[in-house]
Amino acid sequence: MVRDWSIPVDVVSPPSVVDWVTAIGTLAAVGVAVWVAWREQKHGREDREERRRENRQAQASLVNAWIGTFLRTGDPRDDMMGSYVVHNGSTAPIYEFRAILPAGFAGMKPYHTSPIMLVPTERPRDLGFEAEPVEFSSDAPVEITFRDAAGIWWRRTTDGLLRELAGRPEEDADEVEATPTGSADS
To answer: What are the CA-CA distances from residue 158 to residues 9, 49, 60, 133 (Å)?
Structure first.
């Protein structure tokens, strides 16, 4: 005996309104779930990028320089001399640190220090520089450039802003971003 498995046409009925509403509701729920997952992934990616940027800046924001003054011989009647005072308050060394005294300060020509490595210290370090005896001010504008332990180049401008550079300072005139992190002499 051969069995007929076909379904009679009159048994299959067209979808009802309830079936349509259920199907549309299911599709909408799937769409909302996909959208929420996409949005959470996007926000998570933005949060991770923000944390990476903050971590990159963490060491660089702890590096500062300013102009200090001292007596050449320690005798108060002697001439006052200027000195770069630098501080690496981070926990890792920085490399190719260079301080730049702009032209015009106290009638001087621009002065650049040789690139040096700065190890972390609790107290600021005096680099000194040779100059004619003049009056110096501790609020003199000093610009610094350096490479952090992660290999990222930074510039702290004379107004105290910290800027990430896209490459070596000599090669790179474009700065990635300007991030105020406080005064250069803080």
So the answer is: 86, 28, 15, 23
Q: What angle do CA 19, 25, 27 make, to 5 degrees?
A: 105
What whole-number distance in Å separates Cα of residue 112 and Cα of residue 133? 18
Q: Which two tokens stand for residue 9?
A: 């046409």
d(CA 166, CA 152): 8
Q: How many CB atoms lie within 10 A of CB 120?
A: 16
Strands (DSSP E) found in 27-185 = 63-71, 80-88, 94-101, 111-112, 116-118, 125-126, 143-147, 153-156, 161-165, 175-180
Residue 61 burial (CB count, 10 A): 18
133: helix, strand or coil? coil
Pick from 162, 170, 167: nearest CA to 62: 162
Q: Which bin fits 167, alpha (ψ -120 to 50), beta or left (φ > 0)? A: beta
Residue-by-residue pLDDT tens, the chain, 186 positions: 677 777 665 655 777 888 889 999 999 999 999 999 999 999 888 888 888 878 778 888 899 888 776 666 666 666 666 677 888 999 899 999 888 876 655 555 556 677 888 889 889 888 766 554 445 555 566 888 999 988 899 999 888 889 999 888 875 444 443 333 443 333
User: Is 112 strand, coil or helix?
Assistant: strand
